[in-house]
Amino acid sequence: LKINVSKFSNRQLSTLEVLVSCLKFDFKLKNIEISRLLSRDSRTIWTVVNNIERKKIGNKKE
Length: 62
Hints:
By secondary structure, this protein is mainly α. The chain has one domain: Arc Repressor Mutant, subunit A (Orthogonal Bundle), CATH 1.10.10. The chain has 3 helices and no strands. The longest helix has 20 residues, at 42-61.
């Protein structure tokens, strides 16, 4: 898996959020696959994905 380093320049998302966002939306991985790759609990990944979506919705309103 290759992730473009420039994606991490987005200051609105944390490093974990950028990484999960790339894996989820660019590589189309499921939350459970991401959790295994990153050695995190699947509930943590679910929370991160929800935070990403909430931040994207918040940006659209502005």
